């Protein structure tokens, strides 16, 4: 696999940090405030789906 350029690595790292922040915010709202926020959970699911879809797509391209 060809190493990504610095801007791609930075984007990938920023996306990872965003997912961790969404998970943290969701867990905080559930644990501390006792409020289940569907929007935060939906954003987390969307981010995870985009990540997994991209991972599958690029791994598939690499194998061809």
What does this structure look like?
With about 60 residues, the chain is mainly alpha-helical. The chain has a domain at about 35-64. About 85% of the residues lie in helices and about 0% in strands. It contains two helices and no strands. The protein has helices at about 5-35, 40-64. The radius of gyration is 15 Å and the shape is elongated. It starts with 5 loop residues before the first helix and ends with a helix.
Q: What keyword list fits this structure?
A:
single chain; 84% helix
Measured distance between first and last alpha carbons: 12 Å
Query: Main β-sheet, in a few words?
Result: none
* Apparent shape: elongated
Structural class: mainly alpha
Task: Find the count of extended strands (DSSP E, 2+ residues).
Answer: 0
N to C succession of SSEs: HH
What does the radius of gyration come to? 15 Å
Q: Low-confidence parts, pLDDT < 50 over ≥5 residues?
A: none
Strand fraction:
under 5%
Q: Overall pLDDT, averaged?
A: 77
**Share of residues in helices:** over 70%
| Tally of DSSP helical segments | 2
Show the helix and strand layout.
Layout: H1 6-33, H2 38-63
Gist?
The chain is an all-alpha fold and about 60 residues long.
């Amino acid at each position: 696999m060809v190493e990504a350029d610095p801007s791609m690595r930075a984007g990938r790292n920023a996306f990872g940090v965003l997912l961790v922040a969404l998970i943290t915010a969701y867990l905080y709202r559930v644990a501390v405030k006792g409020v289940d926020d569907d929007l935060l959970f939906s954003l987390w699911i969307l981010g995870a789906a985009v990540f997994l879809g991209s991972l599958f797509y690029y791994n598939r391209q690499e194998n061809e």
